[in-house]
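ligand=iron/sulfur cluster
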Amino acid sequence: MTPSQEKKLRVCPLCEATCGLEVTIAGNEVVQLRGDRHDVFSQGFICPKGTALGQLHTDPDRLRTPLIRRHGQFVPVSWSEAFAEIERRLSPILAEGGRDAIAVYLGNPVVHNLSLMIYSQVLLRILRTQNVYTASTVDQIPKQLASGLMFGTFTTIAVPDIDRTDYLLMLGANPHVSNGSLWTVPDFPGRLAALQKRGGRCVVVDPRRSRSAEKADRHIFILPGTDAHLLAGIAHTLFAEGLVTLGRLEPHTSGIAEVEAALQSFPPEAVSPVCGVPSETIRELARELATAEHAVVYGRIGTCTQAFGTVASWLVDVCNVLSGNLDEPGGAMFPKAAALAANTFGAPGVGQGVRTGRRHSRVRGAPEVQGELPVACLAEEIESAGDDRIRALITVAGNPALSTPNATRLQKALDQLEFMVSLDLYLNETTQHADVILPGRSPLEDSHFDVVFNQFACRNNVRFSPPVFEAVPDHPEEWETLLRLAGIVNGQGPDADIEALDGLVIASQVQAAVGADASPIHGRDAGEILSELANRRGPERVIDFALRSGPYGDAFGARPDGLSLARLEAQPHGIDLGALEPRVPELLRTPSGKIELAPEPILADLDRLAEVQPAASRGGALVLIGRRSLRSNNSWMHNIPVLMTGKPRCTMHVHPSDAQRLGLEAGALARVTSRAGSVDVPVEVTDAIMPGVVSIPHGWGHDQPESRLGVAAERPGVNANVLTDEFELDPLSGNSVLNGVPVSVQAL
Ligand code: SF4
């Protein structure tokens, strides 16, 4: 290191693995970026995306100044001009159309950013629109719903205790590339190797021989969208062969008999022709799961983004419960996060559970889940006439023009809005439709704390990162921008006192905690607590409060050895809070105080599952699935030069037998057509995909004329969501069907 260089520590905000990074800087440049070997959780692991944070910081296309569209062109303006324009355009819509005339879309990066995570919720609480959409309904909401119905909150999700398991069965997941999803597991490759070294086994079930499947001990092909059938066959076998062992959970679980009865019609012989997995293999999986000393089933994106996403997600944990592996070391366990986990609030062991359908979308009548409507409904809610239609949209760190089904229709609908404002790092395929774009800050200019991913971590831990770089003067933090938007929709105008608004945010949280019986600060003086927090502002103050009043906190002096943000700041590599520990019944928040294994809406959906016809009856039609790349991050990070080297990644994988039948040649273009649209994509012939299935990765299609992504535009790829269908949903959760989309393919 030269005298002008400095070392900083920062948790990577890009994906769920949350790796600790060591960043060497000189001035405003990153000189070197590597894994922090002393990080208590990731211990030096890093992937290529993490090393690219420096290029993101200096990317000339990253927006630094607000933009306003004037006469069809974006022009840079000051922050005050931008907020004045938002006030001028949004207020009449609010006055005439009411709150529901303004929709909000929150993208995936929101949950990776402390400011956005906490203050987007403040904006929503103040706006009170019914039209809330997020990336959850093209991703994980089925798992959240299934878990919510069983355990009582939408974020009480069991994760594999990989470091102690002997048998890991994974469906529709590729953690070798993702490093986990709804499962924070940095260095999955190393942890898998350790599992295998101690004699354990990993089995991957996937329509594609993914990188995870290559590294597993066994790979089983399955037809897209039929994971629920396979899992039902496994659960049926556990019952039929007397392999059910509830163990410690027996007195804490209800609905076993109902589940057994409901699964009667799913013996392996019945589900095998549907899912394409031999019945004997299904029985083997059930026996392996039941007899391994420590075993766990994990399902992810492929099990969610399908027509039976909620049923499949539920069956994952049904198998974990029946085989005696839920809430047991080496099985599927529940992390205990240090701050803001719903399953650490309220009285332990009982709660109100989760409810859905408290309102429905205007056009299609789709039910709300977790306070949001399916994003697949967004286009029709803008297009369809009526006084109560969506007239304005606020997007926050989202790119629905690439990420949501029938993207062509949504892109046209965005142009029908009367006003659109986006908070984003880039002028991209979505924000090009906006009237005002407010730039976010470089991730390296913000402090960082993982609110969400500590709730899914394979080991309990807590870390805080201060900013690596000083921010550009006058560039507000994202939370300040969101509070300014909140002030506008609250009728206080663009010059609202956001410090006062922020004061209300923390005061309401403190008041709630001192009034809650189960809180460690119950009955304390709210003013006294607030005065102890007075040296901080914004999200750091919220986190300090959450840590101190959380399960490991110092309770503002009552537990002197407990956590506070100051204590955490003194541990720059983080604090290890230990291996996951059994938490049932303490973490349950269901009305019965038990694991409710037989939720009525899910059991009712099994009739639909039983009606699915064997694949042979579909006449050999092709179906489309997605895939993930280590160097892509959904639709963004494609503008980072170091991540765009190598051979083109946006290709269509097709099996040699299908390629021969259709006359497709490697490297040539094929036209892929679905009900929703058509794309021309280069062909890659590989036996890593099963016959009858083709795969195109999502997040591409950077060829839009107004976007400003110079590097991405050189290799734009095609938008797979031109092909996905906005009318195909998992009816329980509202999640889009993005895997198993019927397509035809023709050589060009
Ligand atoms: S695995 Fe995820 S968190 Fe870790 S360095 Fe890569 S992008 Fe960052």
